[in-house]
Structures are given as C-alpha cells and as structure tokens.
C-alpha cells in the first residue's frame, strides 16, 4: 500500500521529536496552534488538542500539563462561550507568535549587506546598563565593552558610547559570524534537517500518505524547521557559506508542505468538532513558503 512507507517516515519523525530531551510538549502545542489552528479561527477544544497530539506520541496527561503551563505563563487562555473546554492564544502571544511564524514561512533575513555596526561602551557607560539596551536591540557581545550587529540594526541612543561601521569580506564575515553568532551550528542544523527530511520529500514525489499520516508529518516537520529558524540570527548573505544550507532546507520544507496541505487539512477537519474551526484557512496555506528559492 502507498501508506506503508509513510508509516515508517512518521515513526522516524516521532522518534526525532522525542529524542530531544526534555520532550517539550508545550512547544509542540505552540507549533500546532501557529501552523494549523490560528489560520482557521484560533480556538480548539482540549479534546481535539489531545487527539491531534497523541498521534505524535504525546500522552494525554503531558498535553494537559502543557496547556496548564501555557495558561499560567500568559500565552494561552480558556476560550469563552464554548460548549467544551477550549483554548486560544492570548492577545500578547498572538502578536509575538505572528511575527515568529511569519519568519518561518517567508524566510526574510536582513538582505545582502556586508557591513558591520560596532558599538564601544566605556566602563562607566556599561555600568549604567547601556549593555542591556544594546543586547535588546540585537547587538552581540564580542568582548567586554564591544558589541557588534549586522548592518541595519539600529543602535539605541546611549550617551558616552562610540559607534563605528565596517565592511567585511566573505571569509571574514563567515568567520566572524561563527565566532559571535555561532553560524557554524546554525548551518549544521539546517543541513541535518535536509538530511533527515529528504526521504520524505522523495516519498511524496512518488505517492501520497493517509490523512492522519499527512497531519503528523506536517506538524513534526514544521516544528523541526521552526526550532531552527527561531535560533537563526537572520544574518545578511555575507555571513553565510556559499552553499546556503538555509535556502536548501527552505526549498525542501516548501516542497514537503505543499504536498501535505490538502490531506492534512482533511484530517484536521475530521478530528475537530462541527463548527470548531473555520472551514477554510485565512490566509490560504498554499501561500506559505512561496518565496523559497
């Protein structure tokens, strides 16, 4: 049967998710809502949440504990006027996650600049907490009192600080990116993603999984990709190696996602109750990853 190879691929994806310790059920709930629930109204019953996540190996108790923690942290809230206990993102979380998921889907970085902005803080200025303002703006500590950011990051106004600008060659930029922003680890994460998910893309080119398999594969693949993107510093092109593993991973993610949308959405509709979710996602899901190159 066409579904047989996908059963193995689902098992492998589940194993990779559970290999990350501790298993972060709350993080997977965020992926579930950001990718599947928010576009279709944003509210889901605890019954449906449990049904969807037990399909990827989480236990009902762990899922309910994760929901309680997310509510306690102010990220989720109980939805009013629902016949059964249901949850939605809070307004604050909606705003935060909208920006984060937009970066997952559109992949926009900081362009192709090759400049570097530096800020020097004399000891007295650093003691006045100018360092916290720079870190919050997106600067990284190079050594004590010296902060760097890719060209285009606007430094905060700090009396007594010195701002400098420089240009970088490709080899210097990548070496600096690895030393300050750990770009080697980021590149390796994208390469591991591509290696792990290439068999899925090849299988999807030959046949189609069952709806339940499609949903599990979509959820776990998006989750794995999201975990990399949120740690990706989003540096300009000059900080990346020539083979651009981030772009290769994004193209692969785009191919996989587009192949799974229709079947996974069918499963989502079957698991949720009548009228629980909007019948059509808005904006359309096929617009996601459309900028992958």
Structural features:
globular; single chain; 293 residues; alpha+beta; 10 helices; 3-stranded antiparallel sheet
SSE order and pairing:
Elements: H1 4-19, H2 25-37, E1 43-45, H3 46-54, H4 60-72, E2 76-78, E3 86-89, H5 91-106, E4 115-120, H6 123-137, E5 140-143, E6 146-150, E7 162-167, H7 170-181, H8 183-206, H9 211-229, H10 245-271
Antiparallel strand pairs: 1-3, 2-3, 4-6, 4-7, 5-6
Helix pairs in contact: 1-9, 2-9, 8-9, 8-10, 9-10
Query: Structural class of the secondary elements?
Result: alpha+beta
Helix content, binned percent: 55-70%
* Order of helical and strand elements: HHEHHEEHEHEEEHHHH
Could you give the order of strands across the largest sheet? 5-6-4-7
Q: Tell me the fraction of residues in β-strands, as a range.
A: 5-15%
Radius of gyration: 21 Å
Shape annotation: globular
Q: Based on DSSP secondary structure assignment, what is the total number of beta strands? A: 7
Report the major sheet: 4 strands, antiparallel
Termini gap: 33 Å
Give the low-confidence spans: none
Quickly count the helices.
Answer: 10
């Amino acid at each position: 049967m066409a579904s047989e190879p996908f059963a193995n691929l689902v098992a492998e994806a589940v194993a990779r998710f559970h290999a990350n310790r501790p298993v972060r059920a709350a993080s997977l709930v965020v992926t579930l809502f950001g990718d599947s629930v928010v576009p279709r109204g944003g509210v889901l019953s605890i019954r449906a949440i449990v049904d969807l996540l037990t399909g990827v190996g989480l236990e009902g108790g762990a899922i309910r504990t994760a929901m309680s923690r997310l509510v306690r942290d102010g990220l989720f809230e109980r939805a009013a006027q629902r016949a059964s206990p249901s949850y939605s993102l809070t307004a604050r979380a909606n705003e935060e996650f909208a920006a984060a998921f937009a970066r997952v889907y559109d992949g926009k970085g900081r362009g192709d600049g090759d400049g570097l902005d530096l800020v020097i803080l004399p000891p007295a200025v650093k003691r006045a907490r100018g360092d916290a303002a720079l870190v919050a703006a997106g600067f990284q500590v190079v050594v004590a009192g010296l902060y760097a950011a890719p060209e285009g990051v606007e430094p905060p106004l700090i009396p007594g600080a010195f701002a400098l600008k420089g240009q970088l060659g490709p080899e210097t930029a990548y070496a600096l990116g690895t030393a300050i922003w750990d770009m080697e680890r980021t590149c390796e994460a994208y390469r591991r993603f591509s290696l792990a998910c290439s068999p899925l893309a090849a299988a999807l080119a030959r046949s189609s999984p069952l709806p339940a398999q499609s949903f599990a594969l979509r959820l776990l693949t998006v989750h794995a990709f999201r975990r990399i993107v949120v740690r990706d510093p989003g540096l300009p092109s000059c900080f990346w190696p020539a083979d651009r593993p981030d772009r290769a991973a994004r193209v692969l993610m785009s191919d996989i996602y587009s192949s799974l949308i229709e079947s996974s959405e069918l499963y989502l509709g079957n698991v949720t109750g009548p009228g629980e979710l909007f019948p059509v996602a808005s904006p359309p899901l096929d617009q996601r990853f459309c900028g992958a190159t």
